[in-house]
């Protein structure tokens, strides 16, 4: 009779125990991690689907991180833009409510408010999110704007806004202070008004309307333009008027109306009817000279400052502002482009002709990107900076009898500029654009949450395990292992004597 090898049976039993131990370790890993396998290979045929699902979830997570970062930037931008709107309201209220008389420094209360508001506005435009400037276009590592001091007062050899306003004022008023107009009497009974040169400066004669009895008018004609009032037909009547219409450097117009009167001396914007037409002509010339001087010191000065600020804030590093071609400035007839060496460039960010919003884009979904860039040179923002700076930069002398009228003329123009009409961009329009980007990103994130939940459930079915099932398998395996170990122990205790017995 042959006897089977006990050693072979023992080795087989030990191998079974080793295999069960490996199964036990794997089940414990599944129980602790909740994952079916530690490698994709362990998933079998489902490994391709698992890789694809994990890739999609990773991409969605990346998009969500981008959304969070961009949301933070837009929230900071929105806070700055809301602050700009509040500052604008404050400055407009100051212009409407503050007395026009200057304080001891020669600066009106509205001008003080404008300067303080401008300082805050420039700070908002240099808002940063981390190391990124938000209103500099693509130049995210550069501040958007210069400092308040440099913009108003210049920086060394670089002229600031105050200097450009001063130069333009001299060019617009001329040496005589009559807005570059020359008055003469070609005959004893006629007054002639001429523009002193073909230039962009001073008053431009637009039209003349006469209701003076016995008078004839001609012009304005020629280049430079000229008009004439002739009283050779006789004296006008008391209460008769003549109106000259001027175009000012900022594009606005002003009417100057003189009224004939028998009173002597005449009142403001009146001329006395003399004993003869020649005497009346002399009085008309005198009154017209006085009225032009007053209009030049008020409306023309205000319009000149607006024109200078338009030129200053239209400039950038590639196209510096236009400046008066001087000195001398009071007789200048042309303008010349400034340079970065002699003129402050207020905007220090990136310039470009493409829409500002396109300077910063972020992909927030596989087929969806949002644009949220901004430049301080956008019309809505530049308008605020320009008009606040204009108000802060104009000098209003305390002892000047024209102070009230100059302040009123300046405030009228700046109030209109700060309340643009339809079709002109405002800060609220920029806010609307950014709000649209926020809405788009919020919707995308909501979709991501739903997609993530769906994909995660599907992935869990492939990669995950049931704790109850694994627990039952561990318990069954423990029972088998215990039985196998007992059997193996009995085999190891078996001897030939016991076998024969």
Briefly summarize what is shown:
This protein has 501 residues and is α+β, with helices and mostly antiparallel strands. It has helices spanning 6-33, 47-97, 109-125, 148-153, 161-173, 277-314, 379-393, 403-417, 427-463, 467-493, 496-500; strands at 128-129, 132-133, 181-184, 190-195, 204-210, 216-221, 226-230, 241-247, 253-261, 270-272, 322-324, 335-337, 361-365, 368-371.
Fold and architecture overview:
It is a single chain. The chain contains eleven helices and 14 strands. The model has no long low-confidence stretch (mean pLDDT 87). It has a four-stranded antiparallel sheet. Strands 5-8-9-10 form a four-stranded mixed sheet, with helices on one face. Helix 6 packs across helix 7 and helix 7 packs antiparallel against helix 8. Strand 1 and strand 2 form a beta hairpin. The protein is α+β, with helices and mostly antiparallel strands. The protein has three domains: 71 residues; 184 residues, Up-down Bundle (f41 fragment of flagellin, N-terminal domain), CATH 1.20.1330; 120 residues, no CATH class. It starts with 5 loop residues before the first helix and ends with a helix. It is rod-shaped.
Topology:
Blueprint: H1 6-33, H2 47-97, H3 109-125, E1 128-129, E2 132-133, H4 148-153, H5 161-173, E3 181-184, E4 190-195, E5 204-210, E6 216-221, E7 226-230, E8 241-247, E9 253-261, E10 270-272, H6 277-314, E11 322-324, E12 335-337, E13 361-365, E14 368-371, H7 379-393, H8 403-417, H9 427-463, H10 467-493, H11 496-500
Parallel strand pairs: 9-10
Antiparallel strand pairs: 1-2, 3-4, 4-7, 5-8, 6-7, 8-9, 11-12, 13-14
